[in-house]
Amino acid sequence: MKIKEIRDLLGAEVLAGEENLENDVTSACCSDMMSDVLAYVKDQGVLITGLINPQVIRTANMMDMLCVVFVRSKTPTDEMLELANECGIVVMKSDKRAFEASGILYSNGFAPKTEDGNV
Amino acid sequence: MSDAVKFHFEVDGSDFSSAGAASVMVKKKLRQLGYPPDIIRKVSIAMYEGEINMVIHANGGTADVEVSDEEIVITLSDRGPGIPNVELAMQEGYSTARENIRNLGFGAGMGLPNMKKYTDSMKIDTVVGEGTTITMTVKL
Ligand SMILES: Nc1ncnc2c1ncn2[C@@H]1O[C@H](COP(=O)(O)OP(=O)(O)OP(=O)(O)O)[C@@H](O)[C@H]1O
Ligand SMILES: [Mg+2]
User: Fold this and answer.
1) What structural domains does chain B harbor?
2) Superfamily name and number for A3-107
3) Burial environment of residue A13 by CB neighbours within 10 A (0 to 12, 13 to 18, 19 or more)
């Protein structure tokens, strides 16, 4: 799925990385714990989170993620958006809650990937 | 044989918002140098976990990355409280981080095991009351 389709499914507003909306992603994860994202996530293209701090963007960058969705209308700071633009990460915000946003992506074919590549 | 490439960073322990910035910089440089994505990911995740640890547990320190033909060596050095029981600290889920750290998205006790997982070797030199130096190697 293209990142711009995620935007449409979640009714989200794109705040950074607009030039990468055509990129393809196939999997997503949802967490407010960056420790868990770093430890358990593998080859996930999208991070759904309600946490606001620069480490969210840096963690996504470390994990080679392509897109971060902030839920519950949480608004990232200018510093975070600048960082995302530098790293080429698409940032969007949605008024949906994490559970709902995850459910929408899941039911549209997104699946979590585990360590061994299984779903 | 080409010359080794070296990076040095001062990691500010008083400003959480900058935590992880050195690792982002290293990732960018390694990409520019054309290293394979899986190598870059290993190095950057291991360094990032260690960098965040220095900020949340040790009031900052220094980070050095040395790239040679055979390997990438990451050295993280701090003058923090030291780690009293390394074996315990290496266990998944062991953390002394409090609520305020967890509210920032860290403190699950997964960092040190993750650093070990993503590197080919990891050495922890630590003295309680003096500080900790962690040396990690990723083979090329
Ligand atoms: N540089 C350090 N100086 C002093 N203590 C440290 C240092 N690094 C780690 N520790 C100790 O080891 C424990 C385990 O570290 P680890 O990185 O595995 O987990 P964490 O940092 O608590 O949580 P997470 O990494 O999942 O966010 C820490 O809670 C802390 O007590
Ligand atoms: Mg840690």
Assistant:
1) 5-139 (3.30.565.10)
2) HprK N-terminal domain-like (3.40.1390.20)
3) middle
Q: Which amino acid is at B34?
A: G
Q: How high is the ipTM of this complex?
A: 0.96
Mind listing the pLDDT tens digit of every residue in chain A (119 residues)? 999 999 999 999 999 999 999 999 999 999 999 999 999 988 889 999 999 999 999 999 999 999 999 999 899 999 999 999 999 999 999 999 999 999 999 999 887 665 554 44
Contact B114, B51 (CB under 8 A): no
B113 with A39: Cβ contact below 8 A: yes
The chain B residue lying nearest A64, using CA atoms, is: B41
Pocket of ligand 1 (CB under 6 A): A 35; B 49, 53-54, 57-58, 78, 80-81, 83, 89, 94-97, 106-112, 132
